[in-house]
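Listing 4. Sequential folding, example run.
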Amino acid sequence: MAIAGGNLYFTTGLIAMTENDNELEAIVAHEIAHVERRHSLRGYKEYLRKQKILAVLGTGLALLAIAAESENALAGAAVLTTAGAFALEFSQKGYERDLEQEADMFAQVYLARKNEPITPMLAALDKFATYTGTRLGFVPEANAFSSHPDLMSRISQLKLGNLHDFNEPI
């Protein structure tokens, strides 16, 4: 896990799961990408931005309901504002999945620049999938509550994705 201040935390189970330093290096590269790309800060700022929009819309609905002098309209505004808060939480999970995918890509770039294969990263993700599959009996797919993309799509992205390195930015 990467924390906003730049600290990285690894469980002893994760460390024991890795078979060699290359697998651990791929995992560390993924977590460092979270820190370098400021994912915690970006996620928090995105959450605050959406929260402000929700607050303005909720206040606007409440003011319209008050102006209409209708208790039903006021109750409707409260229900819509509450529903908006739940929608905000779900949209934030989707944003977090995008940041996880970005960290995978940056780890892949890191390995490519060192002329190392992505095999250790694939092996680590495969071990996560195997461990999850043996505990649950299946490898779950991502859903609205997931903070990470599902493991099989991450593995597929690494296997099938093409890395293009440009000398100059486009």
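-- end of first protein; second protein begins --
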Amino acid sequence: MKRDEEYRAMEASELREWMEKDKPFILIDVLPKEIYDKRRLPGALNACVYEVTFPEQVASITQNKHWEIVLYGSSAESLDAMEAGRKLSRLGYKEVYILEGGVEGWLKSGYPLVGENVLPPERIEQTLNLVDHTYTVNTDESMIHWTGRNANGRHFGTLKLTKGDIRVREGVIEGEFDIDMTTMKNEDLKGDPLQPVLISHLMSDDFFFVKMFPKASFKIASAKAIESFTTSLPNFEVQGTLELRGIKKEIRFPATVNRREDGSLSIEAHFDLDRTRWNVLYGSSRFFEHLGMHLVYDLITIELRIFTV
């Protein structure tokens, strides 16, 4: 048995021996209840480590912090049980054990499970099956959120998309969409008399010169899947051309693509743009001196959310 500063690691054979000898201890499955109901170790109770009430759930099982508690999670790849062990140790539980390999390790050792469906759950989060299709951008749902900053703070707001198509061919995504620059809105100054002043400034030739260039556009040249992705990280790498203020520049950024229940797509991305590449130079210290209060940072943060029909 290996010992960590906060808990002890236990092999499946040792846990099995404890069970066969009817040793008094508490066995806790730290996975969500819907997983626990389907497949769990015999005699296990449930306290989900992902819930904020995890400490209270454990306390409802036992308030004796000197009891021997064995925790287990999904597999050797997941930190669920170890995180649970650290939490309990910080709460003062003295005898905490972690089953090495979790449920998967228990199964590989040849020991049984109980529950509604003891078959391993499909890891559907690791796959994204896109069908060849041309999707229309839903302009009512889709939105661009922008954030600009200076030394004193930040301003943020939105822009609307006017039209667009997303095409999937053999797992590669292409397409284009238009951005209506006249829909530029600010959110942080609502009710402030400076709000229309800011919007007027952003729409002027100091920034995006909307009167001359009312439309921006983005053409997706290629969006390809990232190998070995997980659902908490982007799964596609997007390459394309952004036309802004009449200037075309190539950009790349990671994005998360998902299929919704109705078969449509959702695409989400977060990235920074260097506005000066499109000749939006106002307040940039790379092009002007003695700016003082007029300094504006070059990078604009973009949060892009596209939904299709």
